[in-house]
Amino acid sequence: MSGYKVLWLPGTDHAGIATQNVVEKQLASEGLDRHKIGRDAFIEYVWKWKAEYGGKIIHQLKRLGASCDWTRERFTLDEGLSRSVREVFVRLYEEGLIYRDNRLINWCMRCHTALSDLEVEYEEFEGKLTYIKYPLSENKGRYITVATTRPETMLGDTAVAVNPEDSRYKKLIGKTVNLPLTNKKIKIISDYSVDPSFGTGAVKITPAHDFNDEAIAKRQNPTLDFITVIGKDGRMTSDAGARYAGLDRYECRKIVLKDLKELKLVEKEESHKYAVGHCYRCKTITEPLSTLQWYVNVQSMAKDAIKVVEDGKIRIMPKTWENIYFAWMGDIKDWCISRQIWWGHRIPVWYCQEMRNEKCKIREGVTVSTANPQVCPYCGSEKLEQDGDVLDTWFSSSLWPFSTLGWPDETEDLRTFYPTSVLVTAFDIIFFWVARMIMMGLKFMGDVPFRDVYIHALIRDIKGQKMSKSKGNVIDPLIMIDRYGTDAFRFTLAAFAAQGRDIKFSEDRVEGYRHFVNKLWNAARFIIMNLKTGSNNPSSHIKIPPLHLKEDSRPEDLASKWISSRLAVTTDDVNRAIEEYRFNDAASSIYQFIWHEFCDWYIELSKIEIKNPASQTGVRWCLLHTLDTSLRLLHPFMPFVTEEIWQKTKVFCSDFKVHPMENKESITISDFPRSLPRDYKAEGDMFYIIEAVTGARTIRGELNISPSIKLNIFIKTFSKTVQKILLENVEYIKGLAKAEEITIGISIEKPDHSATSVKSSMEIYVPLKGVLNIKAEVDRLKKDEKKVEESIAILNKKLLNEDFLQRAPKEVVEKEKEKYEELISVKDRIAGSIKMLLDAEV
C-alpha cells in the first residue's frame, strides 16, 4: 500500500525434538518405538504425520489474514533448504569453524539427545544440601566436609576443591582424602572459582557431571580424570561400583545417603533452593554428560553480529532488548549443533569403515561433502557410514533469510529481497534464532539479514499468567475468530501491543472491538443510503435529491472541513506510530477517530448539513472520502471488513466530479494515506461547537432528562469571537443538543432555576422549570447516594481486613479494589448532580 514490492514469505521449521517427541508418543500408543521400526520407516512415519498435522500453523495464519505470498511456502526440510544447509556445514567445516569434540553437554534422558545451553530451562527446586564428611587419608579421625545437592555423583568425584585464599584449608591443599563408598583416594586442590561462603567452602569435584567442575578439572595440571557414573539412560554405570550400577540416578541418591548415614559420614542436611535444568521440550530433568558432539566456533561471527547492532545497521525494538543481546553475545559459547535424534538434517559427514591406507588413517576416514559420496576419497572403500546425528533445528532456521530465496545460487529473489526489512519475533528466541540469523547472514551474504527486529509482547491470560496446556489457560485463536470475527481479534492484539509490555489477554476486549466493527458497518450503511440519489433514507427521513454532477464536489461547510482536518491529524499519527512499531498507538488513533469523531460527531452533523441544498453534494463527497481514507488506514489491522465495505462503496465514485475514493481493484493495493492538508481554523471553530453541545448533553445526562424533551439553552460566551462562531453554526448546536431555542451572547445572565455547565470558553445554562421536578429528582439521587455509600462501607471493611488481603487470590483483591474505585466515582457523580440541582433551585 506504500508503493513497495513486498514479500512476506511463509513457512515453518521441522521442529526436530518437538516433532519427534509427538510422533514417538503416537508410536508408543500403537505398541511400537522408533528402534523397532528402524530409521527409514520412522522418518516416513513423521512425514505422514506432517502431511496430516503440519499445516495447522499455515491454516491459522491464513485465517488470521496474514498477507503472505502463499505460492512461496517453504519448509526447512524441503530440497532447496536442505541443499543450503549442507553447503553451509561444508564451508564452515573447511574453514575449521565446525569441529567435533568430547565435552560436557546437557543431556535429555527422555529425548536421548544432547541439548544446547539455550534448550535447557531452569526452574527453582526445593531440595536438600547434604554435608558429607570425606576422611583425610593421612590423619585418621579428621575430615574435610563438602556440601552437595547431588550425593549420587560423589561416586564420580576426582577431587575436592577449596579457594587458595581460604585460611581454613590452606594447609590441606595437596593432601588426599578417602572417597567414601569407594576404594579411591582423591586430591584436595585449589581454585579461585570456589566460593568460601557456600556450604563449608570445600566442594566435591565431579568433572563428568557438572559444568563448573569440568572447568576446574581442565584448569588443573595435569587435568583431572573424568569418570562417568550416570549413563545416557539416567542409570548408574559400572564406574559407580557394583552396589549402585544399574540404579536410576534418583534411586541411587537415596541408597548413597542411607549408606553414608550408616557410616556416620553425613554431618547434616539443610533445606536448599536451587535451579534445576529441564529439557525445554519434554521437561525432563537434564544431566550434564561428557559426549562426542559437533560444534560451531561462533566467536568471530559473534563479534561481527555485535558490531552491526552497535553501529545501528540493525535496530532491535524495544531498545531495552539490545542490552540483553549484547550481554549474551559477549559471553557466547561454541554452539553444539548435533542432536541424537532421527528427524532433521542428517549431518553430512561419512566415516570410512576400513581405513586401508595411511592418508585415510590420518584423516580418520572422515568425509564431509555436500553430495553423498559413493566411495571413500582416501582409500576407495565403498564401506561408508553416515554420521547418525542430525543438526539442531535452529541451524537450518538460522539460514532462513537467504536459503528461502535460492542461496547458494545467485537468484533474482536473492538480489531483490535480501536483506529483508523487518523480523517480527518473540523475546524467547532472540538467541535461538535472531542472533544466529545475524551471524549466518553476515558470514555467507556479507550483509545483515534484516534492518529492524521488532520484539513483540508475550500474550498471557487475563491474570497475567503464561499460557500453558497444564494450566488449561491456552486461548485458541481460531475459537476467538469463530466467536468474534478475525478483524476484531486482530485489532485487539494490535491495540494491546505496547512495546516492552506483555499482553494480559481479555476476551471482553475482543467483544468490544467487535462492537467497533459493527459501528463501522453502520456508518458505511448510513453513507451508502445517502449516496443512493433520490432515495428515501429511513433513518433520517430526508428526501435526497440527485447529485449536481457539474458542481465541484469538495465540501465548503465547517463540519466537513473539520473532519477532513481531523482525518489529516489521524493519518499523520497512524503513519508515525507504524513507522516506530507502536502498533497500539496506531490502532488507538484510528479507533478514536472513527468512533468518536467520524461516527459520533461528523455523521450526526452531516444529517443536519445534508438538509441544506448548497451543502448536499459536498457533504456526500466528504462522507465517502473520509470513509475511504479511514478504511485504508484501518486495512492493515482489519483486512476483511475494510475490503468488503470498500468494494460496496466505491461504486458510487462515478457520481462525483472529483473522485472521493481510489479506483483500484482492491483496497489492499490502494495507496496508504499519507500527509493530508490541515485546516486549523475549522478545528478551532468546531472546538467551541463541541464544547457547547457537550455542556448541554452533560446537563441532560446527569439530571436524567429524557432525550425526547426539547431544551431551551442559554450560552454565555467569554469572547465575541466565540459568540460569532456559535451564532454562525447555531443549527449544529440546536440539532445535536436537541434544543427548542438557543440564546447566545457575551452578556447573558443565568436564568432562574437553571442547571449550569462551565467550559473553558463559555457557560451553558438550561432552565429546569417545566422540564424537571427538582425536589423529586434530588430525593431520588439521595436514595441512590445512600445505596452506593452502603456498598462502599461493605467493600471498605473487606479491604481493611488483613486476613482477606493475605488469603484471597491476588486477582480477587484487585477486582474488589476496582469495584471500590468505581463506587467512589459513582458517588462523586451523584453528588455533583445533586449540587447542580440545588444550585438551580436557588
Any descriptors?
842 residues; alpha+beta; four-stranded antiparallel sheet; elongated
Describe the protein.
The chain has 842 residues and is an alpha+beta fold. The chain contains 27 helices and 29 strands. A hairpin with a 3-residue loop joins strand 28 and strand 29. Helix 17 runs parallel beside helix 19 (583-609).
Please outline what is shown here.
With 842 residues, the protein is an alpha+beta fold.
Q: From the helix content, strand content and strand pairing, which structural class follows?
A: alpha+beta
| Intertermini distance | 62 Å
Please tally the helical runs, counting DSSP H or I stretches of 4 or more residues: 27
Report the principal-axis shape: elongated
Instruction: Give the rounded overall mean pLDDT.
Output: 91
Low-confidence segments: 534-551
Main sheet makeup: 4 strands, antiparallel
What is the spatial order of strands in the main beta sheet? 4-3-12-14
Number of strands: 29
- Gyration radius (Cα, Å) is 37 Å
| Content of β-strand | 15-25%
Percentage of residues in helical conformation: 40-55%
